[in-house]
Specification:
With about 280 residues, this protein is mainly α. Helix content is about 60%, strand content about 0%. It folds into two domains: about 90 residues; about 170 residues, Orthogonal Bundle (Lysozyme). It is elongated, with a radius of gyration of 21 Å. The two termini are about 30 Å apart.
Length: about 280
């Protein structure tokens, strides 16, 4: 979701900074102008982490676009770093406050796997920082974003032949095979928007605990049901998704070609706690 407010911001910014100046050293007035723009941005993103990350993302693109203009490069880089520092601070606070909750979850459920699935993380973790930033913005567990990516396409970094993307969103057409970072980021954003919209639609039927800072088995089960089409005539059908959810978790679900959402989530969460907290 791209914020229209950035174009208003860009218009104001273009009135302040005009023309390219190489070997640029900011003046006192330039610094004051940047501080004013930072203040405006803070107001625009207050209590809206999706918009905060979106502003950072667009500033990053603008920094690359105007790489030959030292003055704009300084200004855009300063604002980009300012926005990411704000995002990072909020995310770090959320991580610190939720670490014990996630540790308890792993301790409770990190047993009963029919096979050793530790090796399945290697294709997924390289994109952790990007997935973590976006998942935080959408208030969704990063480990569940990664587990879904694994379940749908074994964390493929390409566009599958059906055009539904690495998260297999059937109502989207991303093209096939070649993928860029921008397209991949869009597929992650679309996945999280889709997942949240599913919850909003069926909120009257379900109760769940599922966010960036906390979750329970019921919340993960409800997510799996909704995401994998576990509905009929507007009603949620949870048993329809048991295999999708539990493959290779206990001997009951041993016959599978891919690990289910839940065991992959637990193993990913365990890796996340030990490597990113």
């Amino acid at each position: 979701m791209k914020s229209v407010f950035l174009w208003v911001f860009w218009f104001v910014l273009s009135l302040i900074f005009v023309g390219g100046v190489f070997a640029y050293t900011p003046t006192f007035q330039d610094t004051a102008n940047i501080a004013d723009l930072e203040s405006r941005l803070v107001t625009l993103v207050e209590n809206d982490n999706i918009r905060l990350r979106d502003f950072y993302d667009q500033l990053q693109h603008l920094t690359e676009q105007y790489s030959n203009d030292d003055r704009l490069q300084y200004m855009l880089s300063t604002l980009k770093d300012f926005m990411y520092a704000k995002l990072f601070t909020l995310k770090t606070t959320a991580k610190v406050s939720s670490k014990w909750v996630k540790q308890d979850f792993v301790q409770q459920y990190n047993t009963g796997f029919s096979v050793n699935i530790s090796g399945t993380l290697s294709n997924c973790t390289g994109w952790y920082n990007t997935l973590d930033d976006i998942s935080f913005a959408y208030n969704f567990p990063t480990a569940l974003t990664m587990a879904t990516w694994y379940r749908e396409s074994t964390c493929a970094y390409y566009l599958p032949s059906n055009g539904d993307g690495p998260f297999q969103i059937v109502n989207e057409d991303y093209g096939t095979w070649d993928i860029t970072q921008d397209i991949f980021v869009k597929t992650v954003e679309d996945f999280l928007s889709y997942a949240n919209s599913k919850f909003d639609r069926y909120e009257w039927q379900l109760s769940w605990y599922l966010s960036y800072t906390g979750f329970d088995l019921t919340g993960i089960s409800n997510f799996a049901a909704l995401y994998n089409g576990g509905t009929k005539s507007g009603n949620v059908i949870l048993p329809n998704n048991e295999s999708y959810l539990f493959d290779w978790y206990t001997d009951t679900y041993w016959s599978a070609i891919r690990y289910g959402i839940f065991p992959q989530f637990v193993k990913t969460l365990d890796w996340e706690i030990n490597n990113k907290y």
